[in-house]
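Still learning. Any example?
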Amino acid sequence: MPYKTQGSGRPQRSASSFRRGGRPTGGGSGGGRRKGPAKQYIHPSKFINQAVTKEAEDPYQAKHVFADFPFGAELQANIRAKGYTAPSAIQDQAIPEIIAGKDVIGLANTGTGKTAAFLLPVIERMSGIMLRPSVLIVAPTRELAQQIDEEFRVFARGMGLYSALIVGGVSVDRQLRELKRRPHFIIGTPGRLKDLIERGHLQLKNMGVLVLDEADRMLDMGFLPDIRRIVSEMPRERQTLFFSATITPDIQALVHDFLKEPVTISVRTTETSDHVEQDVIEAHDKNHKVELLADLLGKDEYQKVLIFGETKFGVQRLSDHLSNLGHTSVAIHGNKNQSQRQRALKQFKDEKVKVMVATDVAARGLDIPNVTHVINFDTPQTYSDYVHRIGRTGRGGARGRAHTFIDQQ
């Protein structure tokens, strides 16, 4: 059912509403309210931030270039082909420690290059090793696991190393065939990994390296029991690499249980990206929000826009409505199967469509280059979710913009 529109209006980006006690728009983007904890009230002032200009920054000065690292000729050639020369802060500091065989805690924001920080030294370590499988990489979402696998294939090209992607939402038969090939790297999500372990299809007793990526997200999503079950199947003598944006008591407990004398490397910056210009847009109601959103998308600077909604139904409905208005759009949410989500994500990444509308869970861990704007059509459940959302823009030091719709008082 299409949205109705009424009148015409221009976006009103104003902080004045929170001084009058205005609350963020609470309604979902359509359909019923999702079940779960009550939505937190987030003061609208938290959605406003003046971005730091590049001239005001103190850029990180790397101690190494990639050619300094003791990587073999094939890996160095693949790094050069990727266009890498100077490492990011997490890469510069973590790679030497990982090469030395130490357990590492990497505290880093998204978009800082942490995937390469753990993949490159582990790929180098695995070259020439006959024992398979040897490396387990666990990520919170299918999309992030897929991205790690894609990056692995680029860096390991021509080196005789193979991976298996073990995630939910796709046929298990193909994954079982891949496991029978005894890949060097297994990259997966907690639920499907645990399932295959318990069905006797996945043996981890010879694994020498464990990587937990976005550990805080995995705990947020309720995967702690699955992670403990998975790790219980691995040898105690292993190298464990642990990446997270935050350290909470639950994370501390995992660190204590899983890692031995870890080296902590923190390159975390501020709670929200300094490079993201954040502001609010006041709207009378949902129809007004759609009208204002369409007005924004008609502007030239809105080139690659990620929109967050609250419900699966509402996200799909909004995406369809925007497409009907002439703004090419795709949606990702829990009702889409994995191939549909990957196809939509690829269209957005390749800029075949201008807009992607997503729920929080579907968008966790996504690494999408050059997103110009993040728009919170519905306010997030928590401030942590807000930080995650706007972190999809302003990545790698680029500038980005984030808008959040709030009720007009």
Remarks:
- The mean pLDDT is 83.
